[in-house]
Amino acid sequence: MELQGDDGRIRTGTVWTATAHAITATIGSGVLALPWSVAQLGWIIGPFVLIFFSFVTYYTATLLCDCYRSPDPVNGRRNYTYIGAVRACLGAREVVVCSTLQCAILWGTMVGYTITAATSMATVKRSHCFHDKGHDAKCDASGILFLVIFGVIEIILSQFPNMEKVTLLSVIAAAMSFVYSFISSYLCIEKFVSHPKLRGGLFNLEMSKGVTASTKAFHYFQALGNIAFAYTYCMLLLEIQDTLKSLPPENKTMKRATMFSVSITTIFYVTLGCMGYLAFGNDAPGNILTGFYEPFWLVDTANLSVIIHLIAAYQVFAQPIYSIQEKWLALKWPNKGFFNNVYTWRLPCTKGPKFQFTLAKLFLRPAFVIFTTFVAMMFPFFNAIVGLLGAMSFFPLTVYFPLTMYIVQAKIKRGSFKWKAMQSLSMVCLVVTLISGVGSIADIVNHLKHAGLFKIEL
To answer: Where exactly are the transmembrane stretches of this chain (predicted)?
Structure first.
């Protein structure tokens, strides 16, 4: 059933489509780094941090749901985007900072997804090589071809008109995330059962061979960023909420979708993170799937699921950037046909759906994908990028802006117990962001000393 909203736009989204979008935006490349992250933190702090970040994400996301409309969360004016909510609640001065951060994180995630998808493609190739020639064979995989293939696919998908029209992609991506999460957990369980031994330590303070104390500390900090990144999706929450029907109220529906998505992802994260650590101990790889080559068909299935997931999830992160870019250009040059004239095309001799586009959409979106792919070629290392993205996005977009907007909209009295509790949570998350950022930057600097152009790390 389609309902026309108070702004004249028809929205068809439900709690299930919103849950699919949220799972697609949340479960992605970050989940593959969780065993490595738990391995850096140990059995006590690792699972605690996984659960802590899930509660923080759920709490701040529910507050953000009430900011879709303002000043009243049910009958107020719609804020179609995260940036729109910041403008309505906090004013124009905060918009510049928020829009810069949001676009940077969304784009950085697209870079990370490009690297991860190419890594999975390379892993499939190596898996077949080892299966055919033996595990001692030299099975190198150059990344340039896989990066280009992924980029070409995203150029085609970039012509989807908006977030609501990529719902099918989100459903497919959510299904694929379950597939590779289940397979990864199974492979870790099977590896542990075949060699049963309690691996790892309570706090993992042991120094591995060749690892200095400073490197150990940086890895510890980076692991916090990896886990934070794995839960991050608040910067897309309001864009997802804008696809929902008006009845029941959007904030109630989105809160249910958030509860479902965060609960599901937390179960997967804790299971995979802990089982990966149990299977590999301190030797857990940065991308857990790169640690397996047999049974090759099952490993291939997991990696293919990752690839399909990331192909779809890329568009969920890209659509808000496309929308911001195209709206800004249309307003900047209102009389330029390149940005404003809408053309309609339909396959000849058919009655299929019409394809509407502007020349800006037709050419600028592919150009943006090409640029993103090129940057991924320049930084072809996975784990350090994930940690830095988590560090950059967690505090400002997942914690600070949602808390601050809610305080303003709900008129939380300064100095009250609730206000103090929110500020304390904000400060804790700021510290996490700062130290995880330091660890990730240090790791990136180290990788830059050894990384080769177009050479993906496995």
So the answer is: 15-34, 41-61, 104-124, 144-160, 166-189, 257-280, 296-317, 362-382, 388-408, 428-448
Q: Which domain holds residue 377?
A: 3-450
- Give the count of beta carbons closer than 10 Å to the beta carbon of residue 150: 25
Is 457 a member of any domain?
Answer: no
The number of folded domains in the chain is 1
The CATH number linked to 222 is 1.20.1740.10
Residue closest to 170 by CA, chosen among 3, 13, 352, 289: 13
The residue to which tokens 């995260």 are assigned: 82
User: Is residue 173, in this structure, part of any structural domain at all?
Assistant: yes
Residue 394 within any structural domain of the chain = yes
Alpha helical stretches, state H, 195-295: 213-231, 234-241, 250-280
CA atoms of 214 and 386, how far apart (whole Å): 20
Query: How far, in Å, are 22, 192, 195, 290 from residue 188 at the CA level?
Result: 26, 6, 11, 12
What are the distances in angstroms from CA 53 to CA 48, 60, 288, 405?
9, 11, 21, 20
Nearest to 239 by CA among 168, 165, 308: 165
18/170 Cα distance (integer angstroms): 9
Q: Contact at 8 Å (CB) between 200 and 18?
A: no
Per-residue pLDDT reduced to its tens digit, 43-61? 889 899 999 989 999 999 9
Q: What is the DSSP letter of 207?
A: P
- Residue 325 covered by a domain: yes
* Tokens standing for residue 420: 């103090």
DSSP state of 4: E
